[in-house]
Amino acid sequence: MTALTLSTSAAPGLRADAIVIGVAKGAKGPVVAPGAEAVDTAYDSRLAAVLETLGASGAEGELTKLPAPAGFKAPLVIAVGLGAEPDRDAEYEAEALRRAAGVAARALAGARKAAFALPVEDAAAVAAIGEGVLLGAYSFDTYKDNGANGAGTGKSVKAKNGRAPLAEGVLLGGKPRDAAHKAALARATTVAEELNRARDLVNTPPNDLTPAAFAAIAQGAAKEHGLKIQVLDDKALAKDGYGGILGVGGGSAATPRLVKLSYTHAEADKHLAFVGKGITYDSGGISLKPAGHNETMKCDMSGAAAVFAAVVAAARLGLPVNVTGWLALAENMPSGTAVRPGDVLRMYSGKTVEVLNTDAEGRLVLADALWAASAERPDAIVDVATLTGAMMLALGSRTFAVMGNDDAFRSAVHEAAEEVGEPAWPMPLPEHLRKGMESPTADIANMGERMGGGLVAGLFLREFVGEGITWAHLDIAGPAFNEGGAFGYTPKGGTGSAVRTLVRLAELTAEGELG
Questions:
Q1: Which residues bind Mn(2+) 1 (predicted)?
Q2: What angle do CA 359, 210, 479 make, to 5 degrees?
Q3: Which residues contact 45 (CB under 8 A, 6 or more apart)?
């Protein structure tokens, strides 16, 4: 992964392939952002005019290249748009810096070294720029050029068109001897590495990332980072009565797994449980998906990938909070042993579920994992899942939904997501929708009213949360997998959605600001 360093060096004398500066959209045209003063001076203080001549406006995501001035040791200046210029005395928002750094880092694929002369007001800006560089430089090419690296390592080597990701990013204005700046960069590096690990997992083809293979990757990470891990295979799941996970995985030759990954801290007095949907491939089962809906279904384990990455990140950061991750892993395939519409499953909780649609499988595996997590009586449970197409219709492809059984906690999760730059929106759980899941045969059906289907799924999950336990549900169906072009620091393919939100929730809990 791209190496990051802090430097107080002046841009003109730094040996690099490029100098990255920020340009904002001002009232009368582009405005050179703080951090680029030395570059602007070298252009006789006319850099904004030069950029405007070249068509730059400062709009978010805009990128303009121009030759470096005489006397610079770098041959190239890259101006990247920051969006609207902030009001007087206001700072650039962290997300604007993060996105700008990501755009530049992606454009610098193949470069050995680049200096980022973006606005650095404080440690938060250092963290945002660092995250943007590391996330923007990401590329997944395991299956190109004879497979340069292994899946799930977070260390993609090759970039598109054969160019390696930017090798080194130097953050100008970051103070290498400042404890706050160093800590901010270290945290950004850890979070980005684990988020990129989640991206690698999401991008891995399902023939290689079976439930057993995912569990093996988790075992390797547990050994490396001192985590406790328990893996229940199909026999253990049958013995203990995990009817939901077994039912969903019953149609596949790749048998299901339930992975419990635990991080504990000696000084912790709070316990969070994260539960992730891990459908390593979703064909829809007997309720087969129509043509055109299968090609990206390797991403249906994005929730489990996010949970896995967040637990490892919490351990690497040494947060004084106990965090348990539950990965509900199964492959949903049609076969003679697959669960059928009309079948009744007895869940781990003892409750029975009539399966009306085998493509509503994520809620079944999550239900078992939620009940298992509840048995440990954590202070709060957060589940993450690419759960419903209905939520994509409601919120689009870049925003995830937040539901829960406690309004204050739902709001706290929403605020944490927005703080770290992950668009989210709180959604209700209307009681009248519960009636639609009544079954004449079982305790509950896995389907209800079509309208409000994402909320129905949330209501179903609530049935399997232990009494008195605070719980939130993140439906990341929209932002988990980017089928369009790359933007900001977000690549095409797996995005690592919700990793940063979960890590921030763990930090807030450790700091006593949550729960």
A1: 282, 359, 361
A2: 55
A3: none
- Among all chains, which residue has been given the structure tokens 């797996």? 494
User: Which tokens belong to 350?
Assistant: 């003892």
C-alpha span between 443 and 182 (Å, rounded): 54
451: pLDDT strictly greater than 60 = yes
CB 309 within 8 A of CB 195: yes
The per-residue pLDDT for 393 is: 96
Mean pLDDT of the chain: 95
Catalytic annotation present for 144: no
Which residue in 155, 182, 289, 346 is the catalytic one? Answer: 289
List % helix, strand, coil for the chain (3-state, nearest 5).
Answer: 35, 20, 45
Q: Which pLDDT score is estimated for 89? A: 83
DSSP string, 100-131: HHHHHHHHTTT-SEEEEE----SHHHHHHHHH
Binding site listing for Mn(2+) = 277, 282, 300, 359, 361
Phi-psi domain of 393 (left: phi exceeds 0; alpha: psi -120 through 50; beta: other)? alpha
Q: What tokens appear for 265 in the block?
A: 């801290």
Report the b/e string of 226-257 with b at 16+ CB within 10 A: ebebebbebeebeeeebbbbbbbbbbbebbbb
Q: Is residue 318 packed enough to be buried (19+ CB in 10 Å), middle (13-18) or exposed (0-12)?
A: exposed
Binding-site residue ranges? 277, 282, 300, 359, 361
Of 231, 233, 263, residue with least CA distance to 249? 233
Q: Which of 256, 252, 215 is nearest to 234 (CA)?
A: 256
Would you tell me how many other CB atoms lie within 10 Å of the CB of residue 206?
Answer: 20
Over residues 473-500, mean pLDDT: 98
Question: Do residues 402 and 427 touch, judged by C-beta distance below 8 A?
Answer: yes
Show the tokens assigned to 386.
């690419």
Instruction: Respond yes or no: is residue 182 known to be catalytic.
Output: no
Residue whose token pair is 């991080």: 263
Which residue type, as a one-letter code, is found at position 62?
A: E
* CA separation for the pair 3, 236 (Å, rounded): 43
493-494 vs 271-282, strand pairing mode: unpaired
- Catalytic residue, from 363, 410, 500, 504: name it: 363
